[in-house]
Amino acid sequence: MDRKISDISRILEIENHLFLDNCCFTPTGAGHLLLKEIHKSKYYIDFNSEIFAQYSQFLYDFIPLFDHGNECEIAILPEVSREFLDARKIISKLIKNKPLYPRGASFKLIKESVESKSSIKFFLDLSKQFSDKLSEHLFETDDPRYTALCEMIYLLNEVFHLKKREDNRFGEHKIHESDTDERIVAALYYYSMFGDHNPAFITGDTDFIGLLSVSSEILRNNVFYPHNIHFNESLYYNPFKFYFDDGKDIKLRLNSKEANTDHNFIIKNKKFKNHLLTLWERFSTYNMPIM
User: Fold this and answer.
1) pLDDT reading at 145 higher than 50
2) pLDDT score of 127
3) 5 domain-assigned
4) What SS3 string covers the chain?
5) Which of 168, 191, 130, 134 is nearest to 24 (CA)?
């Protein structure tokens, strides 16, 4: 079994509510292999069947985690599910546009290309099953407080440029306009504030190191008092945990309860500070039922 699946399974045993992103859904060390293989192959016969077998085995072993017997609930943002499905559609389209074998191929090559097509079909079928599983575990809310938190994270990224532009959905690059990362961070904060259990999150995307460490510190600043009281208390009494996959194993990177935060540091950018204060003021005016 892939090391990544074993690590995620271990974390499911100790957490209560676990958010996952698309970095979790590719085999260890194989993030870019699949698309590279598809792009370089002219015919089905050219495909490296071992790569497709590796991805198929990974998805096959991962699917049972969604129905594990533990109390921990897996949570998937709709944007994460949509990105996975979109990546699958891209791969399916690229593959289907390729011929089975070159003209004049020998019987042996024809036979091997048919076998290759069968293994690729198995991968596509598994990835469809996996996509269906993702859609069964969606985190969805129309609470305007979540929307306000998203806007805060958008603003922080816009000002501090916390995101790069690379990720591992079958080796596909992020869409430039994607706001999935910001929405995941906002979901962590939202669930910490209004959820029944403390949330956790696993990723291998380095963007989140900056997004979570910078946003969790700035949003707790006393300049936004009293609008962020509930936020500050929640990140301490119902803390989120951030697990990072460095390619070797998945380790706890940040526990919001244990974070050393200076609540009194001076935010020098007045325009940014005032904009963020406006968002906090709007957040505090919402009065909706808890989840």
Assistant:
1) yes
2) 96
3) no
4) CCHHHHHHHHHHCCCCEEEECHHHHCCCCCCCHHHHHHHHCCCHHHCCHHHHHHHHHHHHHHHHHHHCCCCCEEEECHHHHHHHHHHHHHHHHHHHCCCCCCCCCCHHHHHHHHHHHHHHHHHHHHHHHHHHHHHCCECCCCCHHHHHHHHHHHHHHHHHCCCCCCCCECCECCCCCCCHHHHHHHHHHHHHHHCCCCEEEEECCCHHHHHHHHHHHHCCCHHHCCCCHHHHHHHHHCCCEEEEECCCCEEEEEECCCCCCCCCCCCCCHHHHHHHHHHHHHHHHCCCCCC
5) 168
* Residue where one domain finishes, among candidates 135, 166, 191: 135
Q: How many domains does the chain have?
A: 2
Distance, in Å, from the CA atom of 262 to the CA atom of 181, rounded to the nearest integer, reads 25
Structure-token match 């069947």, residue found: 49
> Which tokens sit at 274?
């005032």
Record the pTM: 0.91
Q: How confident is the model at residue 278 (pLDDT cuts 50, 70, 90)?
A: very high
Query: Is residue 242 within 8 Å of 212, Cβ to Cβ?
Result: yes
